[in-house]
Prior knowledge:
A hairpin with a 2-residue loop joins strand 1 and strand 2 (222-228). The longest helix is centred in the N-terminal third of the chain and has 27 residues, at 5-31. By secondary structure, the protein is mainly alpha-helical.
Amino acid sequence: MTISEEDTQQECERQLYEIFGLADQIQARLDSPQRRFAVIPGSALAGDDKKSDPYHVSHDVGRLIGVGYQHLHALGCLIRSGALHPSAPFTLARAAIETGAMAFWLLAPKQRPERVLRRLQLARQDVIDGDGAATQAGIPVHRSREDRLNDLEAIALRVCGSKKIPSLHPSAIVKEVEGLLPPDKQRRQFLAWQACSGFTHGRLWPEVSLLKREIISQDGHVQTLRLTNDLTRVWWVTKAASGVLDAATKVFDQRNRAS
């Protein structure tokens, strides 16, 4: 028995709406006075926060998961509106995949010093990027870049035994996280992230590789194409995003149990 294209579209739509429904619930909890990612005293996360203070591990993980679900929620709003742009859904999915992977990566290590170090890696990159932006805009900063980096290195030395804080490489993080996810959450996240990044940067290869193509005209070797999207293409990257975000939320809950 073969599945018709219409049946495939309907099944993808059903699964997408399930994911968007979950994103709606998470978004509502994030918007409520009762914080979704409040830390439980006596939990491993509470201990992480104490060691990394004031750069709390839990705050950044909760923020990253929130940003990821915010983009997933926005993707749901776009799809449910009836609009299906060729590129826009993939840029939203990219942000959800990347921030979900960052959150999972932060909490993945079993040892506290490594979790703290990863939080410091993110903080270090924030200092570098924020200082660079302030310099370009001509905006004065309250503390120098060197002072803030020295603070981070002092925490690294105290907690991790070395003041060296490695650079941050988002692509490597997404690739690493894909291999760490539970089997039921693995959806080729790195490939999905690469494709979505291509759409985000206006590259040609994901457009001609993933979208439906219709030749409008041809002049020798040059074709003019009409490129259109459908739910089967959005389904894959949305599943990749929801898989890593759900896994990140679960590992947060595991680290947030009082011992």
